[in-house]
Design brief:
Blueprint: E1 2-8, H1 14-26, E2 35-40, E3 44-50, E4 63-64, E5 70-78, H2 81-89, H3 100-111, E6 121-129, E7 134-139, E8 148-152, E9 155-159, H4 177-186, E10 200-201, E11 206-210, E12 215-219, H5 236-254, E13 261-264, H6 269-281, E14 287-293, H7 301-311, E15 314-320, H8 322-336, H9 345-356, E16 362-364, H10 369-372, H11 377-389, H12 409-412, H13 416-423, H14 435-444, H15 453-459, H16 464-472, H17 481-508, E17 513-515, H18 521-527, E18 536-537, E19 540-541, H19 543-549, H20 555-558, H21 570-573, H22 580-585, H23 588-594, H24 599-611, H25 617-637, E20 654-657, E21 661-663
Parallel strand pairs: 2-20, 13-14, 13-16, 14-15, 16-17
Antiparallel strand pairs: 1-3, 1-9, 2-3, 4-5, 5-6, 6-7, 7-11, 8-9, 8-10, 11-12, 18-19, 20-21
Helix pairs in contact: 2-3, 5-6, 5-18, 5-19, 8-9, 8-25, 9-17, 11-17, 24-25
């Protein structure tokens, strides 16, 4: 795992290019603290900071092909690199290292962009073709690893994280009002746009080529979805047998490493399944890690202890308090590089920090299972609302919704009329391609009301929910309700929010690589062919997984009610132990000075939170959104971060200038 940075068509001198690359890499050195290297030529600069996991001795980047005509920097892992190396050896390719990085550059030489279809992995790739004078960038199928780009003057600049751009001359970021309104609706942006104007991310499953004549983006993989008349594996027994084979290989591949591989064990079904498969494949002593909370409403420690004892793992746990979250929230926003509507990424950051403190670099986790097997409440909610919409006047059908949110008193204790008022939004519009998310997005979009008048004016005629509904009107026709909801959740939320703010960013902030067997593309492609009843049977989520894992994980975990992963908000930001920087971000001076939010509305929200009277989930999201956006502005627009000092700069283990002078530091 690594971080990469670079630029194309840059008119700086070779020395200035090298210095700029070094500084850009230093901003993301948390992604790769073990080694760093750069390649500089007339039109190009490539840089890498490396977290050594495969081929510790000889995998230093940038790496060339055999005749030095191609140079690569790479962030990620190619899990099937051993098999691909054998394929290339049979075609007379020669290798100088045992790294997966070198396999990639030879694959590109042999097959061109088509090689991406051969990869089983998680990656962001940059390859410079000296002969064609062309830059090639690519990203894995579901966007596990990030890759951002922008144009500064005439120079194309790319990096694993946006903060790297802060070290490129004349980069002056500005918050996009329209994208901010999308974050305050969907928790993320709709497209390749980021929160900063002019900064984009390469979409998952895509590659880009840039040369003197053109810049193009092409898609090599999209999420496959199946219409009702084409479902496969309609029986749970047959589906479970096939899934067992695919998933076993997905886990086995992700255990490949030249360093120890650990696992997260949350006490839920998904992490218990991955742990069970790891123990089956490699019965040796497994290190597992979990996080608990001092506030019992959020704590799952009892289930974590059950799983620990059942699997007999060498387990470590960290307990998180509201003060721990508030103390770390600023750092979390710095690493997330986007507005946040929940504090949930912060405990994941603290967990990763505790893992790294025990000299572990790689963890396997259960991300993706909820999206693929109907695990989220939004899927059940959609099913109930479809049932309710057939008899809108029913007194009993909306009562089913109370079962989904026992942890939200406003819902679990609500009467029939309140449930109808809250959940009845556009109840009859079941033909909408975004029916599953209409209520959620409409409620979240209220956060936009806190924006200042200038921001409101910019977005006054911008309606992102209608925009996405129009875009998907034809694309999702004739699919069942669950497939539509899964498509939305995977394409809009999983990569751009979940895998970013709670996955890659929080892990790599602490030099920890996450690996996700449920996101093996073969697993995804299998799951998207299944009959929906094998995923969500009645209101029983992950039906196939539960069938498969009976008597293989603790019964209390197998049959426990779904508990969403959450972290405290009000007690985090409004207590006597609130850190000074949070008060500063909410001060009249900074709310007015940054110009993003309406001071009166924010103060009303603050007073409501302090009094703790009828604080809703939207209120909690709103205060988190305000704080995180203020922090983001301070860090990236005001550039309140300290300037890099010479002693802080990464040590370059490999410096290659125009392939004629090679200096090893």
């Amino acid at each position: 795992m690594c971080g990469i940075s670079g630029f194309y068509n840059c008119n700086l001198s070779p020395d200035n290019k090298a210095d700029t690359l070094r500084r850009m890499l230093t901003r993301i050195k948390h992604r790769g603290p073990d080694e760093s290297g750069i390649y500089v030529s007339n039109n190009i600069g490539l840089g890498s900071v490396r977290l050594s996991i495969i081929d510790l001795a000889t995998g230093t980047m940038p790496l060339p092909n055999a005749n030095n005509s191609l140079w690569i920097v790479f962030n990620g892992e190619i899990f099937n690199h051993i098999e691909l190396r054998e394929e290339l050896l049979a075609k007379n390719h020669t290798f100088k290292t045992q790294s997966d990085t070198e396999v990639i550059v030879h694959l590109y030489e042999e097959y061109g962009p088509e090689f991406l279809n051969k990869l089983n992995g998680q990656f962001a790739i940059a390859i410079w073709d000296k002969t064609k004078q062309e830059l090639f960038l690519a990203r894995d199928r579901v966007g596990i690893r990030p890759l951002f780009y922008t144009t500064i003057g005439n120079t194309f600049v790319f990096a694993s994280e946006i903060k790297s751009f802060l070290e490129f001359p004349e980069f002056h970021p500005k918050i996009s009002e329209k994208t901010l309104s999308e974050y305050f609706t969907f928790w993320t942006s709709l497209s390749a746009d980021t929160i900063f104007e002019g900064v984009s991310e390469l979409p998952p499953g895509s590659y880009m080529t840039i040369n003197a004549r053109s810049k193009s983006i092409k898609t090599y993989w999209t999420l496959p979805i199946t219409k009702p008349n084409a479902y496969e594996f309609n029986t749970v027994k047959e589906a479970a047998e096939t899934f067992e084979t695919i998933f076993t290989d997905a886990v086995k591949l992700r255990l490949r490493a030249d360093v120890p591989v650990a696992a997260y064990l949350s006490g839920g079904l998904d992490s218990s399944i991955t742990t069970a498969f790891i123990k089956k494949i490699s019965p040796n002593n497994l290190r597992t890690f979990s996080i608990g909370f001092t506030e019992k409403d959020f704590d799952e420690s009892s289930y974590q202890n059950i799983a620990r004892d059942y699997f007999e793992t060498q387990h470590s746990s960290v307990t998180c308090s509201p003060k721990d979250i508030s103390d770390s929230f600023k750092a979390v926003v710095w690493h997330a590089e986007a507005p946040l509507l929940r504090t949930a990424p912060t405990p994941m950051n603290l967990l990763a920090k505790s893992v790294r403190a025990q000299n572990i670099k790689v963890v396997i986790t259960g991300e993706g299972a909820d999206e693929l097997f109907g695990g989220y409440n939004i899927f059940k909610e959609t099913k109930i609302k479809h049932f309710w919409a057939k008899d809108p006047q029913s007194k009993y059908r909306p009562l089913l919704l109370k079962k989904l949110y026992p942890y939200i008193p406003q819902i679990s204790k609500a009467n029939n009329n309140i449930l109808k008022l809250f959940f009845g939004y556009k109840l009859s519009e079941t033909s909408s391609p975004i029916y599953s998310h209409l209520l959620r997005w409409n409620n979240t979009s209220r956060i936009n009301n806190y924006l200042s008048k200038p921001y409101q004016e910019v977005i006054s005629n911008y309606h992102p929910i209608s925009k996405i509904e129009d875009q998907l009107k034809d694309q999702l026709n004739d699919y069942d309700y669950l497939t539509k909801a899964q498509w939305i959740e995977i394409n809009f939320f999983m990569s751009k929010y979940l895998l970013s703010s709670q996955g890659d960013r929080m892990g790599m902030a602490n030099s920890i690589e996450g690996r996700y067997p449920f996101l093996d593309h073969r697993v995804i492609e299998f799951c998207m062919t299944l009959n929906p009843d094998l995923k969500l049977k009645g209101l029983n989520e992950k039906y196939l997984l539960k069938y498969m894992m009976k008597d293989r994980i603790p019964e209390s975990i197998l049959n426990r009610s779904k508990q969403a992963y959450r972290a405290p908000i009000r007690s985090t930001f409004f207590s006597e132990e609130m850190p000074p920087y949070l008060s500063s971000m909410l001060s009249e001076e900074n709310i007015t000075g940054y110009g993003i939010f309406n001071l009166d509305f924010v103060n009303q929200l603050i007073n409501k939170m302090k009094l703790n009277k009828q604080v809703s989930e939207i209120d909690n999201m709103a205060i988190t959104a305000v704080l995180s956006t203020q922090i983001l502005y301070d860090l990236f627009i005001n550039k309140s971060i300290p300037k890099l000092q010479e002693h802080e700069l990464v040590v370059l283990n490999k410096t290659i200038i125009d392939s004629s002078t090679i200096t090893i530091n």
